[in-house]
Design brief:
By secondary structure, the chain is α/β, with parallel strands linked by helices. The protein is built from 10 helices and 9 strands. It folds into 2 domains: 60 residues, no CATH class; 141 residues, no CATH class. The longest helix is centred in the middle third of the chain and has 14 residues.
Length: 265
């Protein structure tokens, strides 16, 4: 964890905390703090007008900024809507999905929202023709959200999620997941998983290997609900394995590993 010369307050109260960068009141102030203190040396500055910053993005243990620090050096230009990946990212994604990916037409983005009516943000997203990879990134979080926070979860399930589940029957044992379990036990895992609508669609949950709660939660969901096809498309990857795969491809992630994996909050 880098030194923090300007410890901030948790929700504007209590004593200053060393993992919080100041007390920004605007997205611009937050981005300024992140660019000065949170980004790794080889990472381009973050633009709050391009990437929506989370409420706690200015915390030094932010999973959003962890994601940005890992993937941004593997990306080239931004066209106003999507980023263009470098060959290093194409190779890494290809290794994770066991498929060679050609560069022409490949795009990626942070805080991606698909065109469904549901508006889920994915921390990182990659697309090349029919291939799509959706990433959910965790660092210090201790669990995947179990319960829906919708005002009317039943109405949301009936109008949005049930049709999406119908479109992904082959993912689930018994061709479905109960509304009770979807809304109250495995909400984030199930909600993200239903993007894997075909063999070329992949959903990856990424977390540190030390967070056994997250891993056990995923394994429970996978064993209870996912078919073999589902398990091929929906996977949990540890940060340690992702970093090792990057090293195998000759990608220099030393700064990232030293910042995030050598120190586990």
């Amino acid at each position: 964890m880098p030194e923090n010369p300007i410890p901030g307050l948790w929700q504007q109260k209590g004593q200053p905390r060393t993992h919080i960068l100041g007390n920004p009141s605007t997205s611009e102030q937050k981005a300024e703090l992140i660019n000065k203190y949170s980004l790794l040396p080889n990472v381009p500055s973050i633009d709050c007008n391009t990437i929506h910053l989370h409420q706690y993005a200015h915390h030094l243990n932010s999973s959003q900024i962890m994601c940005y620090n890992f993937f941004r050096p593997l990306i080239e230009s931004y066209d106003g809507k999507m980023y263009k990946p470098k060959d290093s990212l194409l190779n890494l994604i290809g290794m994770e999905i066991d498929q060679e990916i050609e560069p022409h037409g490949a795009v990626c983005n942070f805080e991606y929202i698909d065109d469904s009516a549901e508006n889920t943000n994915f921390d990182f997203y990659f697309k090349k023709e029919d291939v799509e990879v959706f990433f959910e990134i965790k660092y210090t979080e201790r669990e995947f959200s179990k319960k829906s926070s919708a005002k009317d979860p039943h109405a949301q399930y009936e109008s949005i999620y049930k049709p999406m589940i119908e479109n992904t029957k082959e993912l689930f044992i018994g061709e479905t997941i109960s509304e009770q379990d979807f809304n109250n036990e495995y909400y984030q895992l199930a909600r993200n998983s239903i993007r894997a609508t075909s063999a070329d669609k992949h959903v990856f949950f990424v977390c540190p290997k030390e967070h056994e709660e997250l891993i056990n939660q995923f394994v429970e969901f996978s064993d209870k609900y996912l078919t073999e096809k589902g398990k091929e498309r929906i996977k949990l990857i540890t940060w340690e394995d992702l970093v090792q795969d990057a090293y195998r491809l000759g990608i220099n992630v030393n700064e990232f590993a030293n910042r995030y994996l050598a120190f586990m909050p």
